[in-house]
Amino acid sequence: MLTDQNQNVVWKGEYTPFGEVTEVVNTIGQDIRFPGQYHDRETGYYYNYYRDYDPTLGRYLQSDPVGLGGGINTYGYANQNPVIYVDPYGLDAEAAIALALSDSPVPGPMDVAAGIGIAALALMPGDSARKDAQHARYHKICDQPPPPPSGDPCIDAERKRDQAQLCYDLRKNWSDKWDESGSSAWNKHQGQLQQVKQRIINAVEDIKRNCKQECF
C-alpha cells in the first residue's frame, strides 16, 4: 500500500503467494513487486534482473543461468516457497525468514537484509552443499569476461557497471554469510571486493563521459 503526504491511499494491491497482484486502488502506478522485480505492464511479466518471472505461473520464463546448481527445477522461483525465500537476481534463492514478519505487502530492501541476516544464524539443512553452490554461482558471474562491445560506448559502460555490481553483491553476500570476520579468507575477499568496487567506479565514470544525460 502507498499513501501520499496526506496519508491518502494512492495505491493498494492484493497479492497471491507467488506475487500475482490485483490492484484495488491505482491512483498512481506502482510497479515494484517481489525484491528485485519490476512489473512490465506491456507483457504482464516481472523483470527479475537475469530472468523474467510470470506471477500467474509462479515460475521463470527462462532456465536458471547457473544451471542445476540452483536445484533440479531450473524454472522455479525461490525454492517454490516465496513466503520464506526471495530471489533478487533470478539466480539464487536466499533465506529471508523475517519477510514473514514484515507488515508491508511488498517487502523492501531492509526487510530482505534482515531476513537474510536471521537465516544466516540458523542451522540450515545442507549448509556445506549450499555454501559450495553459492560459491560456484558468484564465481560463474565474477569470472566472466567483460561483455563484448556493442558499438555504443554508453551501452558498453552500463553493461560493465551492471556486471561488476552483480559480482560485487554476490561476492559480498557470500563473504558476509560464510566468512569469519577478520580471518585470512575474509581479508582476501575484502581485497577482492575493493577491486570489484573500483571496476564499478570506473564504469560509472565511463557512463558519465559517454551517456547523454536526460533533462527533467
TrEMBL record:
This is RHS repeat-associated core domain-containing protein. It comes from Oleiphilus messinensis.
